[in-house]
Request: fold
Amino acid sequence: MKPHPPLILHGGTNIPDSRLSRPEAYKQELEHALRESSCEWVIWNPILTAVHRSLPNPLLQSIVRNTDAAVLAIGLPLSGFLSAPAVRGLLPSWETAGGQASKACPSLLPFLWKKDYLREMLSSPLYPLPSSLYLPYEWMPNSYGLQSLPQSIFESSAGGGSKKRGTGLKFRIPELQQQLAGIVPIITGTRRNVAASGMMNAYSPQLDPASRLLTHECKLDSPSHEAGINSASAMPQNYCTGNKSPGECVHPARDNAFSAAFKPNSPVPEVSILLPVYNMRREVGWAVRSVLAQTSPDWELLIGDDGSEDGTADLPYLYSDPRIRVHRFSPNRGKAFVLNELLPLARGRYVLELDGDDWLQPEAVAQLTAIMDRSPEAAIATGSSALWQGTRHLGPLWRGVQPYRGHRADPAGAAPLVPRFYRAAMLRGIGGWPIPAGDDGRLFEDIAVCGALLAEHPEPAVVDWPLYNRVLRASSVSQRGSKKYPAWIQNLVDNKKGGHL
Reply:
């Protein structure tokens, strides 16, 4: 009888934690770890830190030898706020081997892979992710070739401290289900939309770059860039460049090839998403991907690059969909400046503000549009949000739901409304994002604009569950400037610039 190759235990355990924040680097390390092995199967999932020593028992070996599946996985139960019906409706559905669909998020934790399948996935282009922790969900098949293992295997193998979980597995992230609920729907939503449209390919655009080029003719105070193809990246650029004054940028129509190729997307969108970025090359891809994963296709995304020096605006992923337009501004002038420059270009009835290191749940555009349609007097829709803490190695970690606490500014601390979904006509009616005297628009512009809007339209529309994922980073401008808030808001009130207290 021919002996069966053994399992590889922990194919990724020798990869440094520092690679978790860099998925491309992690992928290269994993490929190197698998290159020399003769084993047929790999136990691998970056979320796992330990597998109980008795887990690869004879029963598990028998299942591995008698399956054609590419991935074996286990089910994990839902807990906490994920049991709420409104949240559960957002979660992805994978079919198990028996054809039963589960709404758990995720219903399966992939951890045992055929080495050949895993190496095939390693050779494929990598879409943006917030951390390498989620590579298994990027590479996990939706239903074909996926098989779940009996829970009894893990219950019998668990021991010691692992007995509590009943799986024989230990994890990097304590709040695993909640963490995955904020990430995996974006991955599966992107898959769904790509399959439906057949158009988007983040790294290999199907159209010739010349047919996707959308240029802007601008009067420049002192030209420092040329609109068009960036020679360093050879990617099509659909942006406005240079130092310019408001109102000086002329936007010609798309050329015939571009318009013909994307005729279905030519109608005016309901929602314009404004995304200002500055040196966010590592984070912005995930924010953009969350927009591409939306269940409603009725949006446009206007990205304003505020003089980035790290090549943020050159990322190929930003040019993966015709509804995305990239505008470059130089020099760096602050978030409020960029938002006010993008506002006249927005075509939607509604405007959604998105930060470059935050992201949306797939239902965000659809649900925020619906609640504003039901609230004709409201100037802004807001509500609760999912709160995340940025970390150096693991990426953003889930910290819980930030509930809606009312719309009056707190004089004791900067607490912006999140999300911020505006009625475009009313936002233009107050002149966009106010920049108080002595302020360069880099601090508390979110509180200022909401205060100005709510002074004229006091009651916002409120969603009662999180559609927006907000990341707190110690290095952010708002966090570093938090000590300035009491004086800032007092100045706002004293000058009667819309402080809604």
